[in-house]
Amino acid sequence: MAVVLDYKGLTIKEMSDLRSRLQTTNGICKVTKNSLMRKAIDGDSNWNDLESLLTGTNAFVLIKEDVGGAVKAIQSFQKDTKKSETKGALFEGRLLSDSEIKEIASLPSKEVLMAKIAGALNAVASKIAISINEVPSGLARSLKQRSEQSES
User: Which CATH class is domain 2-107?
Assistant: First the structure.
């Protein structure tokens, strides 16, 4: 995923702050000329839609893994500095709207999702174990009840 930010007015200290916030999510922030970015994406259909965002002063945030965490870090930085704006984002060859970017930020982190999946799998395994254990127990209760009825 690539997020394009307008970095006009940000100080070196603020850019360093943004970069450090992105480190935990394996995101990187690079400032480059729009003409160099055009050359870099030229001929690659996955990046063609980024062309429309290449105006003005841009910083490019490239995210490899924790997309939701990186977008949260960007939004937190923007809230704190009140200087930078998101111009847009490109995900899997498609430009995202502002609402789609906000939805990505609202997603739970990778660790939370993995914990939810593990919990669900554990619950299923527990129910299966209880069900399997219940078959012989139920059979034993039925046999005991039957034997008590035949003794009477």
Answer: alpha beta
